[in-house]
Amino acid sequence: MTSSGNAAVLFDIDGTLVDSTYHHAIAWQRAFDRNDLPIPLWRIHRTIGMGGDKLVAEVAGDDVEKRLGDTLRDAWRDEYLQIKAEVDPLPGAAELVRKLAGDGYQVALASSGDPEFADEALDDLDIRDEVVVLKTSADVDRSKPDPDLVEVTLEALGTTRAVMVGDTPYDVESAGRARLACIGLRSGGYSEAELVDAGAVLVVDGPEDLVDLDWDQYLP
Q: How far, in Å, CA of 156 to CA of 20, rounded?
């Protein structure tokens, strides 16, 4: 169905458009290991989706954040750079973005991730011409699950008639706090129940399952 007006679809990036969730978890684990902080990988995975400003304290406690937060974030970035070339787009991601843009929707990316990596995703997916707005952790003081990133993206788009797509409960929660419906994807490793409990209005496996969706039913 073709959109009318200035309706928008906002996408998270990691785990939503590119299959990078577990790469990020591994990079964080290696960063903690560098600093003699052995953290089980499953615990780290459960925090992927919130911003790095929150992740260290969530995984290792406030004291570690105070002592080593910036050091750990720098180490994570170094480790992720070493495996980033292994990250692939999720099936259907580019097709979905192009179809939405062709149908008249504004397409925006709202990621709590590193601004450089987020920008590179536009070229990795070959969707730079289709994306109207890209906002990242650099544009806000508080990352997901706070609503700031969603709100600043909507402000840049000039609309509140929007729906979000994400792969973690943090995406769903941030969208809800910004008064948007959120469609959840299982491609980030969270279960349907977790995404629904967070407030997702629909849950599917990945972006390829949304190519023929009637988006207007989820717009305010």
A: 26
